[in-house]
TrEMBL record:
UniProt keywords, alphabetically: Amino-acid biosynthesis, Histidine biosynthesis, Hydrolase, Methionine biosynthesis, Multifunctional enzyme, NADP, One-carbon metabolism, Oxidoreductase, Purine biosynthesis
Protein name stated in the entry: Bifunctional protein FolD
UniProt pathway annotation: One-carbon metabolism; tetrahydrofolate interconversion
EC numbers for this chain: 1.5.1.5, 3.5.4.9
Amino acid sequence: MSDTTARKIIKVLMISLTLPMKSVYPQLLDGKALAQRIQDQLKAEVERLKSTYGRPPGLAVLMVGDHPASAAYVRNKERACTKVGIASFGQHFPADVSQSEIEQTIDRLNQDPNVDGILLQLPVPAHLNAVYLLHKIDPDKDVDGLHPLNLGRLLRGERGLQSCTPAGVMRLLREYRIDLKGKNAVVVGRSILVGKPIALMLLEADATVTIAHSRTKNLAELTRQADILIAAVGRPNLITADQVKPNAIVIDVGINRVIDAQGKSRLVGDVDFDAVREMSQFITPVPGGVGPMTVTMLLQNTVFSYTRTHS
Ligand SMILES: NC(=O)C1=CN([C@@H]2O[C@H](COP(=O)(O)OP(=O)(O)OC[C@H]3O[C@@H](n4cnc5c(N)ncnc54)[C@H](OP(=O)(O)O)[C@@H]3O)[C@@H](O)[C@H]2O)C=CC1
Ligand SMILES: Nc1nc(=O)c2c([nH]1)NC[C@@H]1CN(c3ccc(C(=O)N[C@@H](CCC(=O)O)C(=O)O)cc3)C=[N+]21
């Protein structure tokens, strides 16, 4: 072999070695791709159920007011329902709707045999009592997992309908075979919708869990200890690279709409993505990470609730 041929071979080998390293490390946890695969499976399952039992699973999403981000989320859910074959019974109320009108709607949907899942989009306007409305939803149709009975089951480690975002995060971690046993997990955010149920699920998976919130002192000191860091706050760039342990697994739940330097509206998470991705082992992008998994878990819960009533 001539000297130049040998040099060429070495060059090609070097390029092929560096390319995959750059593109694979750090790895993106691709929620969008996994969501598509699960939705394809659900579609086949829904077709089978429909031909066996004569009706498709049904989901009712209740939205109050005109919050633009919520409206986009509701549209995404309806699109996904159509794709998978789930019937939508969505209802959109004006911002000044009365508590009793929503309660009556929930009562009617609880009784409706074509409806398997009911979700009340949060937050609701201040004049409504969200907690009471969530209590009114039949626990067997509570596909958002927010009824006290379902949250209680989660606390006890029992099977039941589980909150979609936390369930989606756990499914994503499982897909990438991320070992949680004995790992330090730090959850930033303690809402009933995201922070608390994620912390409980990580605990159930044998992680050592810390929950941080707006009153936490020395947040950076805590987050730097995290092998698994979950950001669920709703503040762009809350988590910067100096707050992250090298090689950590970073899950960005935050969804924030910001105006970029070009004056364009853009969706970002709570993590300074470009800087943090350089030093983490795995990271979820926004968009394309946790969001599509949330929608998919909602569809999965609706199908689960349907199959329970037919078994
Ligand atoms: N990707 C998805 O599928 C979903 C995304 N989201 C997004 O996730 C984010 C969180 O949602 P949600 O839990 O409903 O929001 P909430 O507003 O209910 O909760 C936010 C939490 O963040 C804490 N917090 C606020 N500021 C700080 C701070 N500076 N440092 C540490 N903690 C802080 C609050 O603390 P305290 O309790 O002390 O006030 C609270 O516990 C939002 O961006 C939301 O849009 C929500 C659902 C699904
Ligand atoms: N009872 C209740 N349950 C919820 O689960 C709930 C809620 N209320 N209120 C609002 C938040 C927010 N949320 C999102 C879910 C998916 C996307 C999503 O699909 N995002 C896409 C992009 C969407 C886009 O581009 O518009 C993504 O991240 O890739 C976004 C936001 C659920 N929430």
